[in-house]
TrEMBL record:
Residues 1-27 form the signal peptide. InterPro entries: Calycin (IPR012674), Lipocalin_ApoD (IPR022271), Lipocalin_bac (IPR002446), Lipocalin_Blc-like_dom (IPR047202), Lipocalin_CS (IPR022272), Lipocln_cytosolic_FA-bd_dom (IPR000566). The lineage of its organism: Bacteria, Pseudomonadati, Pseudomonadota, Betaproteobacteria, Neisseriales. It comes from Craterilacuibacter sinensis. Involved in the storage or transport of lipids necessary for membrane maintenance under stressful conditions. Displays a binding preference for lysophospholipids. It holds the Pfam family Lipocalin_2. This is Outer membrane lipoprotein Blc.
Amino acid sequence: MKPCTLRRLFLPAFSLLLSACSTLPPAGIVPVSGFELQRYSGKWYEIARLDHVFERGLSDVSARYIPAPDGEVRVINRGYDTAGARWKQAEGRARFNGQPDVASLKVSFFGPFYGGYHVLALDPDYRWALVAGNDRSYLWILARDKTLDPEVKTRLLQQAAALGFETDKLIWVSQTRTD
């Protein structure tokens, strides 16, 4: 087969693969602007999430974001595996998709493979956040404390539902263990 023919076959397939691995937000979703990484850094507790294999069976989930001098962000996710009766931890890194004042990042826990991380709503005092992945099957509600004010929770659920997320499928994460 000629090299030209190979390019015609592999270029569309490669382009399709890259588009499937997009780290951009889902259509119709705009990440928060005016974002300040230094204020976002530190520990966040997972209040709710849509179910995924990598977090299945975990309670007491938290995430810690640590800015690095090169502009990357060190990410440490931790949760308690109730079936295994032990803590699990994953470390990764995040990079901004564009300007650092727009809360649209790509996160990797597995080498060169990245997923989207987009802050859709953020408390002015950085006390809670609504976060999505690259599509509407990824959603998290995070807070600086282990509980969230019921009024804030209601507003975030309404906002997520209006954006097309299946909020009735959220898992409300138990936060009862000491850190």
